[in-house]
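Quick question, first post here. What does this chain look like in 3D?
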Amino acid sequence: MRTQIFNLMVTVALLMIGTGRVSAAEQLERYEFLQIQMGVPFRITLYAGNDVAANKAARAAYARIKQLNGILSDYDPDSELMRLCRSSGPEKPVKVGRDLERVVSASLRLSAKTGGAFDVTIGPVVRLWRIARRKKQMPAYAALSEALVRVGHRHVRLDTKQHTIELQHKEMRLDLGGIAKGFAGDEALKVLKAHGITRALIDGSGDIVAGDPPPGKKGWIIEVGAVTQKPTGRVPSEPQSTKPLRLKVSNAAVATSGDAYQNVKIDGKRYSHIINPKTGLGLTQSSSVTVIAENGMAADSLASAVSVLGPKRGLKLIGDMKHRAAMVIILKDGQPQKHQTKSLAHFITTD
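> Answer (accepted):
Ran it through. Tokens below.
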């Protein structure tokens, strides 16, 4: 095994590991790369014929993720998304690029299908809860009520012919945090394929996009360990894991959404970072949701939607679609309860 480190950014190193794996039909080695992108670790695992090909493809894939962050981020005030939010308003459509149009279009379709359980216009409420988590104080009722007035996917008008987006309420703010990483994984995989690399896996901190399987294998093995919070009396609750589930996937995506590490306790009540767009409140039902779908954008956004919908309605949403599966684990009376679609069995493996 050979290990090398390449500095692709001033503050972030790119790690490469070659395992020397060889298949009968191909002379390929396994390489792993790691960078912080979109505020989270993005790991790329790929099989290539040599170091030069592997590094060239990985550099290009990370460049694409960085580019998308500059388009879709709601943290960067200069991103295309934030410029749209500042510039648009009633009767003020704004021309947007292809990437932003695609992500907003997919978001609006899912919003309509879920009755608003997934809603990228939640930005004004998300901003209040970021402050709440930092201060460990509930958002003021008046501020939350005012923010909710600016929430609603029906107030976003997308013109696919003119390539414009119009935010039909004043001071609306879009938040693509529930879909952007999945889309970035899809686009990174496309870049790798354009460089002749099809056997690859992109992992954006739980949003996983898989291409062709490793040489000699039928799929990528992904281990999903559902983490929930288990009450421990007077002792602060700690993350508890259920038995890991092993999934085998190829040319598909897996996304997991949970609140074990992103939550805040206020006045003795625990609120998730996942917000119900209807109420403007963080979810109080501890859960872990895993979704398998045809691409990262679908898996990422569906995992967020199912978290809000809950097991019954959420699994019905997944069950109505082809080539998709889901598992929801909720904590009830201190014990994890598992719910899953019948289609999940197709992906479970003991390998």
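The chain has a mean pLDDT of 88.
The longest helix spans residues 51-72.
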